[in-house]
Each structure stands twice: as C-alpha cells, then as structure tokens.
Amino acid sequence: MKAVIVGAGRMAEAVLHDFANSGDYEAVAVVDAEPTRAEDVAARRGKGIATAARLDAANEDAAAELIAGHDVCVSAAPYRYNVTLAQAAIRAGAHFVDMGGNNDVVAAELALDAEARAAGVTIIPDMGLAPGMANVLAASLIGRLDDADEVHLRVGGLPQTPGPPLGYALVFSPYGLINEYAEPCLALRDGEVVTVPPLGGVEELEVPPLGRLEAFHTSGGASTLPHTYRGLVRELDYKTIRYPGHCAAIKPFFDLGFATEEEVSVGGARVRPRDVFAERLAASLPEGKEDLVVVRCWATGKSGGEAITYAYELLDYADAATGLTAMQRTTGFPVAAAATTLADGTIKKPGAFTPERAIEPEPFIAALRARGLAIRETAA
Prior knowledge:
By secondary structure, the protein is of the alpha/beta class. The protein has two domains: about 1-130 and about 330-375, NAD(P)-binding Rossmann-like Domain (Rossmann fold, 3-Layer(aba) Sandwich), CATH 3.40.50; about 135-325, Dihydrodipicolinate Reductase, domain 2. Helix content is about 35%, strand content about 30%. It is built from 14 helices and 18 strands. Strands 3-2-1-4-5-6-17 form a seven-stranded parallel β-sheet, sandwiched between helices. It has a seven-stranded mixed β-sheet with strand order 10-11-12-7-15-16-18, with helices on one face. Strands 8-9 form a two-stranded antiparallel sheet. α3 packs across α4 (about 80-90). The radius of gyration is 20 Å and the shape is globular.
C-alpha cells in the first residue's frame, strides 16, 4: 500500500511511525510547505519507506497530482486546508482521513459525499482523539444499549507534572487550543441539538492515580455526534479534562477578547489579538513532551430491560521507548488505524462519513489496543 501524509508536525510523525512499523506500506510520502521539516520526519520515522516533498496544501491541483497513485491520504495539516485536500484526494482517486477539529470545515467535507461516491473513495474527517476515537467509543457504548439515555465524553491531554502559569503544557497548536476554548460547543439536551458556551459547566472528577481533576465544555470534541444521535439519545455532551483551577485561570483572557480575529490598532500597527495570544501561549507554556492523556466515556440507559452504565477508560503516558508523546499516540494511532482500513479495503463504503458512521467499533478498538492503547471497559 502507498500513503501520503500532509503535514510534518507531531501528529504526522506519529502516523508515519505507525505506518512504517506496521509492515503494510511499501511507500509513504511526507509533504509539507517546509520541505526540510518533511525530510526530517521522513528520515527519523520512515524506516526507509518514506520520502519527502514540498506541498502548498492550499493548492488543490498540486495536491491532486501528488496524491495520485496512492491508496490513502492523511491530513495532519491545519484544519483550514482539509476541504481542499479532500477535494484533491477525490480527484486523485485516493481515500482521505483527517484529524478535524472545526465543525464548519467538517460539514463542508461531508458535503462532498456525492463526489466521493462517484469517485469510489471514502472521506472520513474528524478522525483523531476527540473528535475521532471518542466518536467511535460513543457509538460502541450506544450500540450496546437498547435505549440510550445519557452519553458523556471526557478527554484531556495533560503534563505529567503541572506547573505555572496554567498547569498546562502545549501538546498541539496554540491556535487549535484557542479554537477549542473560544467556539460554541454542540450538545444534546432532551434529544435536541443545542449550543452551549465554552469554558462553562465546570465539574470535578476523580481519576486514579491522578486524583481530582476538572472538566468543562470545549468546542469540537463532540463533533457530529449530537446530529448523528439527535432524537435517539436524550443527553450527550463533551468536556475537556484539565488540572483543577485551569478553567478559572484561562477564561478571563477569552472574556477580555484575546481570542478575537478582528484587528485592533496597537501603537499604530494593526494586529489580531488571537495571533498575539497564540504567540504568548507558545512562548510561555512548556512543550508537552512528558504528557499523559485521560479518556473517560460512559453511557447510561437500558439493556434487556435493566438499567446499566457502560464505560470506556484510558490513561496513556508518553512512551520513552518510541519517543512519542501520549497526545501523539492517542491522536496519531486512531487516524492511522482508520487510514489503513481504507487503504487495505476493509472499509468498502464510498462517500463522506463521520467516524461513528464509518468505523466498526470493535475491530477499531482492538486495533488501538494492539498499538498499546490500553482501553478498559466496564459495566455497572
């Protein structure tokens, strides 16, 4: 099989690590606007099967030409490029998977369904950690119940040792973090899709051996789940997990408008507060190399007439043996597993689909466990 990975950041590195160690791929092209970045990732993680090239991900013609002849394309690029890349993959006759994170972009990709079906390819956006893995876990939980009442998803990437100023370390782009904290959040209430404000609904949860943590609403994590299960599940929500006090510390910056993209005048120069905010987050927060990821998803309802709660839990740590962070593992491995099932023909369903509609939960969960993600399930 042959694959293209667009982007050469942390998540691209994890996807290439997966591909190169699977034995399933004969060639993987790593492409980026900065060819030296692509060359570095290909050399360090490619095990002799990876090549590097330059690509402007905004150039659909160039992307289609590069993707042609490959079985699957994975976007590890910023989400603003994903519609263009999905269109390019359709033209090239290759399957396409990305890590999503923006509801409007995902909706535009799903609107390519007819074009993808006509081309005989499958498009799966939002296939990372949350959204992505969390969608499939939710589908699995709901599928076990005869009548699903509530579904709750709690996911977070954290430093193993929290420190000032926010008890947080950057495990992905500061722009992605700002987007999660600034945009409206989708949920289900009484079976209907609603939006709730981000950085609200703070709750406490106990996660052994970490102790007390907090969780609050953020955007993107619920992805398409509220629309998929509208009228079928009474309540569904997604919250991000952090160390206690993080939400109270970060929320005032958003209340003051630091996330706005509207330019303001500062000393005669026009600047976007969001750009300044992102730069200060990148400069002030430590890099999350020694990190951990917490996943806790549960659904309550009835099965066989009896009330029951099914749950999935995962606590993953940075892996010193491979040099991959927990966020790389839990984001890169799900998208790599999905891409492989497309490339090898396991999924034969042309069109554009959400993760919960495209992926069979049990084989997917087994594939993640085989990659070392110790997903635990319980029933009570």
